[in-house]
Every structure is written in C-alpha cells, then in structure tokens.
C-alpha cells in the first residue's frame, strides 16, 4: 500500500525559521493546519512543536484539535454557515466573519454556552472572495460591537486564493488605515490586523509590510518552504517535509506506443504519441496508487530516471527507461509532493500516513517544485 510520510525534523526546522522571521518583525502568527485533514498523528507533531493557534476551515478538524489539546486556541478561517453556529462556538475560539445575521447567531450560541466568542471581520481588498466592502466596515463594526458574548479581536483580508491577486504595501497600508478609522470612531482598540498569509512573507524580506500589520496565518510556507509570491522556494527551508512512497506491483518491457484505435481515456483525454517512437520499447512499472489518491501532475519522482506516464483510478504507470536501477516487483519509489498533491493524498483513505523523525545528512535538501 502507498503511504505519505511527514518528517517531523524538517517541519520543526521550517517552524523555527518562521518563528525567528516573525519575531524579528514583531508579528504574531498562527498555523493553518487544514492540509493535515484532521489526521491525529500529524496534528500531534504540530501540537508538540508549538503552542500557537491552529487554523482550519473544517469543523471536524477543529474538534479533533480540541480533543487532542483542549487548551490550544482554534480559529475557523472561513465565514461560518449560520446553521453551524452552535458547533462553531463549541469548537472554534475565533472565527472569521462577514455576515451580520451569522454573527448574531454566534452571539446567541455564545450566550447559551456561556462563552466569549472572538471574531475577525474580513474585508474585501480586491481578491473578490470573502470580505465586506471597506466602505461598509464602520457601520458593520458598530452593529456588532455590543452583541453579547462577542469580542471583535481583529480585521483581516484574504488574497491570492481565488483570482491570484497579490498583496502589496499599498493594500496592507489601506487595511491598517481602515482599522485605525474604526478605532477612532468607536473608541475601541482592535488588537490584530490579520493581513498576512504565505504569499505575504516575501514582503517581509523587502520590509514592505506596513507597521500595524501584526498577524499572519501560515500553512503552505511552513509545510513546503515555498515563496508563494514568486512561485519559487525559500533558501534555508525544507521543501520535502512530505514524501509519497509507492510500491511497484508490475514491471515489464513494453512498447512505447499503444496499439489500436485511441478513444478518450478515464480523464477525457486522447493521448498523443510521436510516430518516431513506433517500434520502440521501454521498461514500464505499475505503482499501487491512482487518481483516487493523487494527482500525478503534482508529484515528482525522486529518482531522475523515473518518468510518470499517466494514471488510472487506482494505478500509476511509470517509465523506467532501461531500468538501470534494477527495480523489481515489491520495490518502492519515492516522490516529492506539492500542496495540492498532499491535500489529495491526505483526503484518501487508501494512502497510509506515517511520521518519521530523522533527516539524512547535514545539508538542507532544496527541491524547486514547479508545475
């Protein structure tokens, strides 16, 4: 059976890198753990590594976090569905909000559960995903300011996730200015301006994050060492915290070009082949993983001689060339993974999950990953 491993040593190294970076800029940060899909063993690695807030967009995952560590502050990082207000208050200490009626429901549930529920108001800054319009912020703030058992702890924004709109110094300055206007109007302090995600980190390197932006939510860069802004990697961080391992279940020398009339395959594609390859053969292997578990476009073989040909629902086809490495049935192959590959594998019950606690050698293994 195929499996995905999380290397705790490499993850902790990445965590320490970010901890120093944010401390140097006097910025608070929380870990976005939604990639782990509520997997207990992987969550335990994160919880043992830090006492920081954990963010997720799935209530079942927040419940798992609370079961494992009741004192960890949990943050629900998308606008809640109104019907889930009771569960939001039960499992999330903080939630990101944009709808007045939903916040009123959260207030009612917080009173019922005898809790103070904290909220962050999300503001639209050009990405056109969640967020109220900036011109509506003062009125919106006033309407929820005195709701019982609700505490406004921040305003925030989301960028880059839908339309790819990048953060910049001007946008971040505006968001902080909106916070200052509301504070002045109502005489209330707002502790956090949560404007940062992994894509905002490169602005820190260039000192382009305005004073007042004091909270980041980080997932991808922690787990992958990526510079999301430039679609590259950050030197000094590990990119291979996660590794996919698959087993070879068949290996044969076969023609390069299939025989017969080609229709569309499982994914609706009709493969195109080079006529020059007719009559040629290569060693092909079948691995015990498929499209139900991974997207072959988002993984890369560690062995440079291995090439991914394609995949069906539960098998992946590999070209081994002349099989110089002498692979045989039962051997395993390793693959590096990007964010979407890990997300797919973590959601598959057919891929085992394992934790490893070591790192080979003394140098960082920097793997630049591009689609």
From TrEMBL:
Tell me the InterPro entries matching this sequence.
Ala_racemase, Ala_racemase_N, PLP-binding_barrel
Q: What Gene Ontology molecular function terms does this protein carry?
A: ornithine racemase activity
Q: Which SUPFAM superfamilies match?
A: PLP-binding barrel
Chain ranges of the Alanine racemase N-terminal domain: 8-225
Ordered alphabetically, the record's keywords are: Isomerase, Pyridoxal phosphate
Cofactor dependence? pyridoxal 5'-phosphate
Task: State the EC number(s).
Answer: 5.1.1.12
User: Quick check: keyword Isomerase in the entry?
Assistant: yes
Q: Does the keyword Transmembrane helix apply?
A: no
What PANTHER family does the entry give?
ALANINE RACEMASE, LYSINE RACEMASE
This protein is called what? Amino acid racemase
Look up and give the organism this protein is from: Chryseobacterium camelliae
